[in-house]
Every structure is written in structure tokens, then in C-alpha cells.
Design a protein that fits this description.
By secondary structure, the protein is of the alpha/beta class. It folds into two domains: about 270 residues, Metallo-beta-lactamase, Chain A (4-Layer Sandwich), CATH 3.60.15; about 180 residues, Rossmann fold. Helices cover about 30% and strands about 20% of the residues. Helix 4 packs antiparallel against helix 8. The termini are close together.
Length: about 450
């Protein structure tokens, strides 16, 4: 068998791992690089393997850093089968169509700005490429069930509890010397969160490819994070200001809606609190979340069984049209406004920041990761003034950074997950910065590897 790493190797994003076994080439994820410099060039670069030679893609979940280059894979010749859970298929369709739309818009903008007859750079892929990719989705993965990929080669799927429909994948290969098992963790969830059940894991594996995103730290307790959110909202309402929550459309938006609903039911928040979800992508993702009630924790599944919407409450308003989004800015206080993007690099949240960031009575509440160089990071790091639409805007609103809502397992949870697997010959750490991996590696049983980009192992 050969195992090679073509993304998320000593870096966090761009998941792409290739297993060659049983006469087949199995790709686990094909994600977009979303951090660091020159991301456009890196995403457009060669894969490190021939797309036409890939037989099957096993998709662990629908975040773009795991599925975002699938249309490029198809565009460059992949004609095999993509296997994923139903929820991942639904969410990946949404995320890929949105990504293609944004890329086409960016390409048109570059074309308008092109001078001297130079051709503007084409989009990485188009909507047509996404439709071709959706045609490649075949059999549906189910937790606890195996799918035969070829004679003597099968894949099993385990709930990774990262986002709706996410999986860890166990590939079993029958060889002359016996059965070999390779486990790909995918992204592992934070077990303290209420929506999904804790991650499940096979009892045994020979090789483990394991994420390490937060391998150097513990998360703040979830209950304390929820309490901080309620206090931030209550304090802002008392001052007469608005609460702006920059929101990631997939998973984080739905979790915050669930937490707000709980706060209203428990009388921690006003019963008629006006909450605006101002993100067409997040709204569509929420509708998909409602289609898969059996994938949630027992408590949330019971809400569905009782015909109670875990993501809905009286004061919630979904905002799709841009005119309605503009109208929100006439509200000077008393509202919670959730809008993308989560790192404030684009989207409608920038307009809401322009109207609220300079108000001392307002609050900006960050509930997700903010990369270096982003507007979110500038605000978090204490900037007194930021640029919005080419104009300086003073930062006078109160800024809250709440770190306990992470969808990733922390260091202790990663250690415990790995400790539940018997028979491991070697662990490969991926999806983490090198310094973080090194810290986690010291706490895991060896031997371990930290693969480099395009590195190949004979296993």
C-alpha cells in the first residue's frame, strides 16, 4: 500500500490524502487551501497526482477545506465515484455552488479592471463544473455500515461529530498477509457541544491519519461560553445597542441559533428578542440542517420528534434580499444581527460593522476562528480604527471573543480519541501547524509522522 499527502500537510486546510491499495486509488477529501499567502495560486496548482487515475473519492464532510477543490478535480479529468453521507451531499452542493458563484463574480470583476488588452484570470471552476461534480456523487455512506470499493477493499464510516453528516473513514484492505486497516479521522468534533452526539471510533486500526488543529490547547468549557454570550447580549441591550455576530454559515450559525433559542426559553434573553440571520447561505444551510433530524444528539432529536424547531423562535427573521439587509441598518439598538463572513473578509457583516462599530453602546461578538490579517483579527487585537469600504471607521463598540464554540476537538479530546484505538502501528498527524503538531505528538503514543506536502509512504 502507498499513502500520500497532498494537502493539510503541516498546515490546517486543503485536506487531500491518497491511499493506493487493492489495485485502486482512493482519495480522502479534496479541499481548498484557505490560509496563508498565495492561496489562489496554490489552489490552482497541480494536485500531485493524476486526477484521471483516481477511482473513488471518500468525502468526510462539507467544509470547503475538505470539498472545495472537487470541481477542479472533475474539471481536470476525474470520472470516478464520490461517496459521502446524505447530509454531506446536501451541504456540499450548497457550499460548492456558492463557491463557484463567488469565483465567477471575482473573475468578472477582474475582467472589468483588466487594462491594456490583458486577459483577466479565469475562475478556478464554474457553476457548470460544480454541476458536473454533483453528477459524480454515487452511493450514500451510512454510519456503522461498510461499502465495498472493490473486491477485498471496503470503507466504513463513523460519526466524527464535527458538523452535520461528518465522518471518520476506515478503509479495510485484504492482503496476502491479512487485513490492513487505515483510519482517516476527518475533522473531529468538540464533544461538549449540544447539537451532535460525541464522536465514535473503531476499536482497531493499523494506521491512523489524524487531525491536529487544536493539538496544543484546551477549549473553554462550553457552558461558560454560552453564559458569556448571554451576558454580552444582555449588557448590550441594557445600553441600547445592537449585537453584531460575524457568523460562519455552516454549523456555527445553526449552533448560535440553538443557543439563542435556549436562552429565550430559559428566560435568560427577552422572549421577543429580534434576531436577524442576514446570510442567504446560512439560511439555506439551516434548512438543510432541518432535513436530517436523526443525525443529532438524543435531546435535539427529541425536539424534532415533538415538532419543535431547534433553530427557530418568535423573534427570528431570515434575511435573503439585499434590500431587507440594508433596512436592518435603520435599527440603532436592541437587535442581534448575525451575518457573514465569520472573519469579516466580505459579505453583509461589513455593512453592519460600518453602522455599529463606532457606537459605544453596541457589541461585536466573535464566536469563531479569525485568521491573521483578517478584519476580524484586527478588531480582536484591539485596533482603534479599521478600514471599511475605503473609509476609516472608529472601533468604539465593545468587543467580545468567545472561544468555547469551536467545532474541533481540543488537545485532551484528541488524545482520548486516539487512545480508544487499539493495534496502531503508526499515526500520521495532519491538519495542523507544525508547532501545534509537535506539541500534540509529545502526548501521543508513537511512532508518529508529520508528513510534508506530496510525501509518499510505503505502508
Amino acid at each position: 500500500m502507498k499513502l500520500s499527502f497532498h494537502g493539510a500537510a503541516r498546515s490546517v486546510t486543503g485536506s487531500c490524502h491518497l491511499l493506493e491499495a487493492g489495485g485502486r486509488r482512493i482519495l480522502v477529501d479534496c479541499g481548498m487551501i484557505q490560509s496563508g499567502r498565495d492561496t489562489e495560486e496554490l489552489n490552482a496548482a497541480a494536485f500531485g497526482f493524476e486526477p484521471r487515475a483516481i477511482d473513488t473519492v471518500l468525502l468526510t464532510h462539507a467544509h470547503l477545506d475538505h470539498c472545495g477543490r472537487l470541481p477542479l478535480l472533475v474539471k481536470r479529468g476525474f470520472r470516478g465515484e464520490i461517496i459521502a453521507t446524505d447530509a454531506t451531499r446536501d451541504l456540499a452542493r450548497l457550499m460548492l455552488l456558492d463557491a463557484a458563484h463567488l469565483q465567477e463574480e471575482d473573475a468578472r470583476r477582474r475582467q472589468r479592471r483588466a487594462h491594456g488588452g490583458r486577459d483577466a484570470e479565469a475562475p478556478l471552476y464554474t457553476l457548470l463544473d460544480v454541476f458536473d461534480t454533483l453528477d459524480r456523487f454515487g452511493r450514500r455512506a451510512e454510519y456503522g455500515q461498510a461499502i465495498e470499493l472493490a473486491p477485498g477493499l471496503r470503507a466504513g464510516f463513523f460519526d466524527a461529530s464535527h458538523i452535520l453528516g461528518s465522518t471518520s473513514v476506515l478503509i479495510e484492505v485484504k492482503e496476502v498477509g491479512g487485513l490492513r486497516r487505515v483510519l482517516f479521522s476527518g475533522d473531529l468534533g468538540n464533544a461538549g457541544r449540544p447539537l451532535l452526539a460525541p464522536p465514535s471510533v473503531p476499536a482497531e486500526a493499523d494506521l491512523v491519519v489524524m487531525e491536529s488543529t487544536y493539538g496544543d490547547r484546551r477549549h473553554r468549557p462550553y457552558a461558560a461560553s454560552v453564559e458569556e454570550l448571554y451576558e454580552a447580549i444582555a449588557g448590550t441591550l441594557q445600553r441600547g445597542g445592537n449585537v453584531i455576530i460575524p457568523t460562519f454559515a455552516l454549523e456555527r450559525a445553526q449552533e448560535i441559533l440553538f443557543v439563542l433559542r435556549q436562552g429565550i426559553e430559559q428566560s435568560r434573553l427577552p422572549p421577543s428578542l429580534p434576531v436577524f440571520l442576514d446570510s442567504p447561505l446560512a439560511i439555506s444551510a439551516t434548512e438543510i440542517f432541518r432535513r436530517h433530524p436523526r443525525l443529532y444528539s438524543a435531546a435535539v432529536a427529541q425536539l424534532f420528534a415533538d415538532h419543535r424547531d431547534p433553530f427557530g423562535f418568535a423573534g427570528l427573521r431570515f434575511i435573503r434580499e439585499s434590500a431587507d439587509s440594508i433596512a436592518i441598518n435603520r435599527i440603532t439598538g436592541g437587535a442581534v444581527i448575525m451575518a457573514g463572513s465569520g472573519m469579516c473578509t466580505g459579505g453583509r457583516v461589513r455593512h453592519h460593522l460600518r453602522h455599529n462599530l463606532w457606537r459605544p453602546e453596541a457589541s461585536i461578538v466573535f464566536v469563531g476562528f479569525a485568521g491573521h490579517g483578517t478584519l476580524a483579527r484586527q478588531i480582536i487585537d484591539g485596533a482603534h480604527e479599521v478600514d471599511l469600504f475605503g473609509e476609516p471607521v472608529a472601533v468604539r463598540a465593545r468587543v467580545h471573543t468567545i472561544n468555547g464554540f469551536s467545532a474541533h476537538a481540543d488537545q485532551q479530546e484528541l488524545i482520548e480519541w486516539r487512545g480508544r484505538i487499539a493495534g496502531v502501528e503508526k499515526t500520521f498527524l495532519v491538519h495542523g501547524e507544525e508547532a501545534v503538531m509537535s506539541i500534540l505528538a509529545e502526548k501521543l503514543p508513537g511512532p508518529l509522522e508529520m508528513p510534508r506536502q506530496d510525501q509518499v509512504f510505503i505502508v
